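Please fill in the sequence for the structure shown.

STRUCTURE ENCODING:
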């Protein structure tokens, strides 16, 4: 059965009703989960690679949906008073600077190297996701105890490092931005998520541009997938940090560990 599914994904026309449905539903799920938590972009990488895309093209293709989704999410978070634009720009600038280096490296690197890096990094970030969940209410006290700091050089360098990772691969960068906003800036979880929305919106067009320059975007798939991304992001923003988030985090973490195992396993087969 699994072989039949793999053969179908590899050979199906992206404009067929079946593939349009799969792409839109996957985009919706990824957009929904990425708004509530994070890490779900790893699922789109897995789908695109199952469709026969090298990991670098899967990486570029997923960026258009990300841009569309986070554009809408940023507006929704701002309307709810959960997005501090001034602070988000301060965070977004170093992330954008770092993303240029990460995206340039991702566009040029051997896909095998990217698979190994993601195979190592994804389970680490999935563990952070679960750790973040286990802290629960403690995050509020962490935010209150953090220095209400001005945005200094150490913050700038930390977010540049996050941007390098985000330019290289989007999978998991939201978790890093949320952690940085909580532990470095003293924000609560919900407002940290707002910062994540806008920071991703800032750096994604430049990262996407690099992948476009290197002809690493499958546009038919990207456009169809983006429809689901936006719809999932809108629904997710209305349910942010309410019921179901814990279950979603566990499901995503399990899927990410599975994908990581597969990426490493294929290096030895």
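FILLED IN BY: designer on duty
SEQUENCE:
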């Amino acid at each position: 059965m699994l072989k039949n599914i793999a053969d179908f994904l590899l050979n199906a026309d992206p404009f067929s009703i079946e593939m349009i449905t799969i792409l839109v539903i996957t985009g919706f799920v990824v957009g929904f989960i990425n708004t509530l938590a994070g890490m779900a972009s790893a699922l789109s990488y897995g789908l695109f690679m199952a469709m026969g895309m090298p990991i670098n093209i899967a990486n570029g293709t997923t960026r258009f949906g990300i841009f569309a989704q986070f554009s809408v999410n940023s507006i929704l978070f701002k309307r709810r008073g959960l997005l501090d634009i001034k602070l988000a720009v301060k965070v977004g600038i170093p992330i954008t600077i770092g993303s240029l280096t990460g995206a340039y490296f991702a566009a040029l690197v051997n896909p095998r190297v990217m698979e190994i890096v993601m195979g190592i990094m994804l389970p680490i970030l999935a563990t952070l996701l679960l750790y973040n969940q286990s802290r629960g209410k403690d995050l509020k006290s962490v935010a209150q105890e953090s220095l209400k700091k001005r945005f200094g050089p150490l913050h700038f360098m930390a977010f540049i490092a996050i941007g390098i990772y985000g330019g290289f691969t989007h999978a998991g960068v939201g978790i890093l931005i949320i952690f940085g906003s909580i532990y470095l800036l003293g924000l609560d979880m919900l407002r940290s998520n707002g910062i994540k929305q806008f920071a991703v919106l800032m750096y994604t067009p430049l990262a996407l541009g690099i992948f476009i320059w290197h002809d690493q975007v499958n546009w038919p798939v990207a456009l169809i997938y983006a429809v689901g991304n936006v719809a999932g992001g809108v629904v997710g923003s209305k349910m942010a940090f309410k019921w179901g988030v814990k279950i979603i985090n566990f499901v995503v973490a399990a899927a990410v560990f599975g994908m990581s195992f597969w990426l490493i396993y294929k290096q030895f087969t």
